[in-house]
Design a protein that fits this description.
Blueprint lengths: L1 E5 L6 E7 L9 H12 L7 H4 L5 E4 L1 E2 L2 E2 L4 E6 L19 H7 L6 H7 L4 H17 L3 E9 L2 E2 L11 H7 L7 H17 L5 E8 L15 H10 L4 E6 L2 H4 L4 H4 L3 E3 L8 E3 L7 E2 L2 E2 L4 E7 L10 E3 L6 E3 L10 H24 L4 H16 L2
Antiparallel strand pairs: 1-2, 2-6, 3-6, 4-5, 7-8, 7-9, 9-15, 10-15, 11-12, 13-14, 16-17
Helix pairs in contact: 1-5, 1-11, 5-11, 8-11
The protein binds flavin mononucleotide (FMN).
């Protein structure tokens, strides 16, 4: 499978085209709009997201509410479409402005940031919503939450299998399942707003019900951990990706952080299991049957209301970076985009490994494999 996105931040709208998606999966505009509205929320987002209605239109690939195997094209109109735009000559440190302007032989950074803008991530969420519908058919689920905002970190271990956890995450304005930490996170975002500054943080993704053996150790470009890292790193602002306890493990003896293999014929869902999950569910580029755990480190938003020093591209004089309407903290939204990118990678890998043009074929091969794993 692959997906392509087109569209600028303040152009007429965004277009997503998905190729290679199997026939027979139910899909509606509402399925996608729910995910889009999850992306636009989160304490610390700017005014733009309250302007956009985030109602997509499916143009092709569906008949009677089910995919038919043809390319799926989805349009998301921009309410904030601006026909006329004045040029901007002062780049923001941390954005694509300066390298993009040099690359495309221009002084007008609007040409650059209209496409570099994270408005494009709405398309990722659209493709991810479609991928999630596929994963749902296989009972595979992805949950995300905010692990840290700036220096405020959720130190508790989260029992992601607890059925209340999703409600706790959704009820928190910063998508953090602990009330006290949520309040501290909101407080530090307020401090950034007051100072005209911005903040980053860490989101965490967890995949449940994925069997062992998805992915491969055979080739560098097919390892599941590598594919996940690329997909998560491609989200604007993400500057670090961690699988399981990657960085913590690097500081410890192997005997403390390698997940001991256990066996019990009656253990659910698989009889081979681990009591710890430092590996984040991936060994040798393949799932090992434990939940996949991925973290994305998000840098602070580059547009500051209290702007940083910069250079005017026309006069070459020192000045202050341009101030534009902007988000202050996007970590809660980045978690939703992370879910979408992870859903895409997993759906793509499963379709590649289990083959077939229709959901029925893939499901039947997948359940045969589950039966085999359960019989061990
Ligand atoms: C959901 C989301 C919203 C964002 N909103 C803004 C914003 O309002 N202003 C801004 O300067 N950067 C914003 N960013 C970050 C920039 O898109 C990003 O820093 C820029 O494209 C440069 O890419 P890089 O940070 O990956 O190097 C946002 C990122 C995401 C994921």
């Amino acid at each position: 499978m692959r997906f392509l996105t087109a569209g600028e931040s303040h152009g007429r709208g965004l277009v997503t085209i998905i190729e290679g998606f199997p026939k027979g999966v139910s899909l509606s505009e509402e399925d996608i709009n729910i995910e889009l509205s999850r992306r636009r929320q989160g304490y610390g987002r700017g005014k733009r997201m309250s302007i956009e209605s985030e109602k997509c239109e499916i143009y092709s690939g569906l008949r009677n509410g089910k995919t038919i195997g043809s390319p799926i094209s989805i349009v998301l109109p921009n309410v904030d479409w601006q026909k006329e735009q004045s040029p901007i000559y002062i780049p923001r440190p941390g954005h694509a402005d300066l390298p993009g302007a040099i690359k495309y032989h221009t002084n007008d950074i609007r040409d650059i940031w209209e496409r570099a803008s994270a408005r494009e991530t709405a398309c990722r969420v659209i493709a991810g919503a479609v991928a999630k519908k596929f994963l749902k058919e296989l009972n595979i689920k992805i949950i995300s939450f905010t692990r840290a905002i700036g220096p405020i970190r959720l130190e508790l271990d989260i029992d992601i299998r607890n059925s209340d956890i999703e409600k706790l995450i959704d009820d928190s304005p910063v998508r953090c399942p602990d009330n006290k930490t949520s309040e501290d996170m909101i407080r530090i975002i307020d401090e950034a707003i007051e100072k005209g500054d911005t903040l980053g943080g860490i989101f965490e993704l967890v995949v449940l019900n994925i069997p062992p053996g998805i992915g491969t150790y055979m080739h560098w470009d097919k390892r599941l951990d590598g594919l996940i890292a690329q997909a998560i790193m491609s989200i604007p602002s993400v500057k670090g990706v961690e699988i399981g306890s990657g960085f913590y493990s690097s500081e410890n003896f192997g005997s403390n952080v390698l997940d001991i293999i256990k066996y019990n014929k009656n253990h659910s869902p698989w009889s081979f299991y681990r009591e710890t999950n430092f590996a984040g569910g991936i060994e040798g580029g393949m799932t090992n049957g434990e939940p996949i755990v991925v973290r994305g480190a998000v840098k602070p938003v580059p547009t500051l209301r209290n702007p940083l020093p910069s250079i005017d591209l026309i006069s070459k004089e020192e000045t202050k970076a341009i101030v534009l309407r902007s988000d202050v903290c996007i970590v809660p939204s980045a978690g939703v985009i992370g879910e979408a990118m992870l859903a895409w990678v997993l759906a793509d890998k499963i379709i590649e490994e289990f083959g077939g043009n229709t959901i029925e074929e893939i499901k039947s091969r997948f359940s045969q494999y589950l039966e085999y794993v359960r019989s061990l």
